Amino acid sequence: MRKLLTEKYGDSSMTTKLLYNELKSIKRNEKEWIEAVEKRERIFRQLEVLDENLEHSSIESVVESRLSRWILDKAYHQKTNGSPWSILKLRRFLGVLHGQY
Q1: What is the model's pTM?
Q2: Residue 73, burial from CB neighbour count under 10 angstroms (0-12, 13-18, 19+)
């Protein structure tokens, strides 16, 4: 996968930058939230292949700012009910939520 990304986009730093920009470009959309969750997860997986550390508060802020209000309310409820929150926990939560619909 890493080789494919490098072949498609060239330099891995450029690929990383493009993926972060794509993550930031995802719009809040009440009707197409499932597609947004899937797109976000694809980006996260590609960033992981490039050995990016996704556990940054800035990434969490970007993701949360683009979640639908009702999803964000559920996520905040999950945040207050357990151990420290992380991008991985947010991804799992969104995956479970995606599976329910």
Answers
A1: 0.81
A2: exposed
